[in-house]
Amino acid sequence: MRKIPIILPLFLASWCAFAQEGSGPMSLKQCLDYSLENNAALQKDRIGVEIANQSRREILGSLLPQLGASSQFTYNIQKTRFAMPNFINEMMPEPLRDPDAPKYMTVTMGMDLSANWGVALTQQIVNFSLFNAVGIANAAEEMAQMGRMADVDDVISKTATLFYNAQILEYSLGLFDESLAVMERTSGLMEANRELGIVRTVDADRIAVARTNLETEKQSLRQALEVQKNLLKLEMGFPMDQAIDIAPVDIDRIESMIFLECMPRFNVEEQLPFRIFRQQKEMLALQRKAAVAEVLPVLVFNANYSTNYMGDHFYGETYNHFPVSMLSVSLKFPIFTGMSKTAKVKKAGLELQKAEYDERMLVQSLTMGYNNARMQMDQNRSTICSQKRNKDLAQDVLRVTEANYNEGLANLSDVLNASSSLIQAQMNYINALSNSVKSYIDLKKADGTISEINK
User: Fold this and answer.
1) What is the rounded CA–CA span in Å between residue 252 and residue 337?
2) C-beta of residue 448 within 8 angstroms of C-beta of residue 270
3) Range of the domain at 251
4) pTM (2 d.p.)
5) CATH number at residue 386
6) Is residue 16 included in any domain, yes or no?
7) Residues 306-338: pLDDT tens digits?
8) Which is more confidently placed, 17 or 390?
9) Measured at the alpha carbon of residue 374, what is the angle toward residues 370 and 375, in degrees to the nearest 5?
């Protein structure tokens, strides 16, 4: 009992630490882990894979012996009666025949009570359609698993894109704050000079207008950030009524990620869309085999055992019971099906031929997608370098222009132009950064390595 006061505070402290860690800004890895666990599409895919697994087990179960039992009890309230020629009167000797006997007589069949029970065993010996169905079920299960892998790649791609977009928008809001600080500083200088009569009122108004426009653009960016966060929550399966806080952007890490990304050797046969299509081709081949199997013989073994009970009572002289047992082997072989089966086999073969051309088109499409993503990546690398240099140059120009303005060597228009140029250069850099991240994600998806984006 003395340990409780010590253990309880330790437990509460560790729980609070865990809660604080969990409630902090989420990194890309945390967002991806959460998305892979809670995304609605992936949860449906898990069910789809399990459905395919159970379908395979269902078909496999059809190959095992099928054993069933049955029983029945019947009470004949009114027994069946038959009318037949009165052959009994005809069989009597002539002196004993009744000339007035009816031509037909009625006979009551059955007893008051009857019952039976039995068991039946069925075993498929040769059934090519069923054997082929097992292969189709296995291929369908593998296809469901690869489909889930494709959806995982899509979720990773979308989550990472939305995450980086939100990070870059937050970064751009910080740049706007810096620009507003410059405006505030310039506005302070204007007010001081206006009181001294050095600056005209219209010049101060120009600063106020520029600042208002900047604040309006900042508000638009803030709304765009909230939209991106809502889209991110939707993709992650995150509660929409809860706020999500993401880690601030690391520009150096993003730039190193973009510039240090090596171009992997592209192998189309390793790409998930190509593997899924190959699995679809295998399904088509199995469907053709299924069409062929429909014209092949089916051999089934059957065994039955039952016991029948009947009588006016289940005791006494009228009570009877007897067993019935049977073993059989049945063979079913189609002889003529109106050429429908032949047409079905030819149709399946044509579908398989059609898939060959689809495969060629898919290879070209995947290769083109990779080449385009790689070309776009190279172009964005060049663009981000030039825009970064342009942003740094605009900052230097504004700094020098402000210093010259304070010394009376530059006018207000020079400061406003330099400030506008800096804002434009910052926005161009942000756009280049956003485009570079997008092309990086597109390239990772095109070469099949999107799952390694956070490694």
Assistant:
1) 72
2) yes
3) 25-66+128-297+340-452
4) 0.77
5) 1.20.1600.10
6) no
7) 999 988 888 878 888 889 999 999 998 888 877
8) 390
9) 120
